[in-house]
Amino acid sequence: MRTAIVGAGPTGLYLGMALARRGHAVTLVDRDPGPDGDRWDRKGVMQFHHPHGFRQQVIEALLAEIPDVWQQLIAAGAEPMTLPNQAQPAGFHCRRMVFERILRSAATAEPRVELNIGHADRVLAKSGRAVGLSIDGHWLDADLVLDASGRGGRIGDPFRAATVGGDCGLAYVSRQYQLLPGASPGPINSIIGFAAPRVGYEGFVFIHDNGVISALLARATTDHELAGLRVTSAFDAAMRAIPGLDVWAEPGRARPITGVLPGARLHNSFRGQLSETGRVGLPGLFFVGDAVCTTNPTFGRGIATSLMQAQQLLRLLDEHGADFPSCSVAFDGWCTEYIKPWFADHVEIDAHRARRWAGQDIDPSGRLPSDLIMAAAKVDPEIGPYVGPYASMSALPSSLDAVQSHAKDVYASGWRPPVPPGPTRDQLAEIVNEKVRAGPTPNAIAS
Questions:
Q1: 42 plus 144 within the same structural domain
Q2: Distance of alpha carbon 353 from alpha carbon 299, whole angstroms
Q3: Which of 101, 151, 112 is nearest to 4 (CA)?
């Protein structure tokens, strides 16, 4: 079968290799020409150089279809993340650039996979079904078309219902550092590395591959004072002021290898396979990955949910064969049942966070979001057994409904999650404003 895939990001590359190994002749279409030596700007993918979390679902997907690529990632420096008393990795530490570079190299070396550098203008249709793509005005024939172009892709707009969701209310900046030879890591308090959540802002350190780490500072999109964190001197001052983050960025421990990288357009979104009338818009055209769902990136669920979709789509294509209409309906139903709940979970978490950051107290009389239920497990041991499966994404968010009442009792008692040491939001704003008023400084990278 001739298959055209729009988008050569992680989802498109994964599907391209998996389908080629099933005998498909695959053409991947992407505007990005790929790495230029050690440099890869990846224009149009804002999050490319920002930190990513790679969960166990990503490992499971790789091992299921392309286990050799998992071994290539390990050889390139990706480090499995392990939890106490667990034999299987809970994920792995890696930069997105390293992850995607390995996938792209493997895909282009795969027999029956061709990478076409160009812009997919539209889906070609004939007799009520997809028959290929128009790429920069040239026709590409295909029996099956997969749209893995991401949330911003518009090629499938005429064939399906509108997106639901919106801005998640967060913006962030990050910076990459290289640990110096012989330097020990900083403090670790989470599976990603280090987390410093506060009311009004959040700080994280993500461990990557080959001694590279990323520091990330998140704020409310409406907090214009903390937008000054994109200024190098303000970012550095904030890093020095936040306990835990300061240790990771000490000059004797690490040196910055990028400037301060701004992040924006963070959305929670979901969009199904079907049209506004609930029908298959164009048989033979499927949407997958970020084209279906995006979530607040601070939980690191994006690539996991994308490859979960890819695996399910492969199963359904194996099962339904060329009966694309029934396959689309089945895939839409699966995404609605198993992917959309993660979107809804983030919408709920983000709405509650916005209210707390605006000064409102937690209301135990209403429904509590998942993050507050997890926090309450520190007080009520009955909640604990439900937290692990949810946090690892092996159980849907609805699994926490069983302990909603327990969590409400915790908050009704007056308990609130402890606030880690460090500046308040207003104190951090003073630090940022002082540096911004002092004038711009070069967004330098230490040599």
A1: yes
A2: 14
A3: 112
Interior CA angle at 419 toward 417 and 424, to 5°?
Answer: 140
Query: What token pair was written down for 188?
Result: 């670790």
What is d(CA 373, CA 362) in angstroms, rounded to the nearest whole number? 12
The DSSP secondary structure of 177-244, one letter per residue, reads EEEPTTPPP----SSSEEEEE-SSEEEEEEE-STTEEEEEEEEETT-TTGGGGGSHHHHHHHHHHSTT
Tell me what pLDDT residue 126 has.
96
User: Do 187 and 72 fall within a single domain?
Assistant: no
- Both tokens of 79, joined, read 């480090």
- The yes-or-no verdict on residue 424 having pLDDT over 90 is yes
- Give this prediction's pTM: 0.95
- pLDDT at residue 88 in the model: 85
pLDDT in tens, 130-139: 999 999 999 9
193 and 324 part of one domain: no
Residue entry with tokens 């200024």: 231
Give pLDDT tens digits for 310-360. 999 999 999 999 999 999 999 999 999 999 999 999 999 999 999 999 999
Q: Which two tokens stand for residue 81?
A: 């993340």
If asked whether residues 12 and 147 sit together in one domain, one would say yes
3-state secondary structure of 112: coil
Whether 195 and 205 map to the same domain: the answer is yes
Does residue 44 sit in the same domain as residue 153? yes
Which residues does residue 70 pair with via DSSP β-bridges, in sequence order?
none
Residue 379, domain extent: 363-415
The reply to whether 406 and 331 lie within a common domain is no
**Same domain assignment for residues 153 and 224:** no
Q: Is the pLDDT of residue 15 over 50?
A: yes
Phi and psi torsions of 193, nearest 5°: 150, -85
Rounded CA gap, 417 and 399, in Å? 21
Which of 289, 312, 343 is where one domain is finished? 343
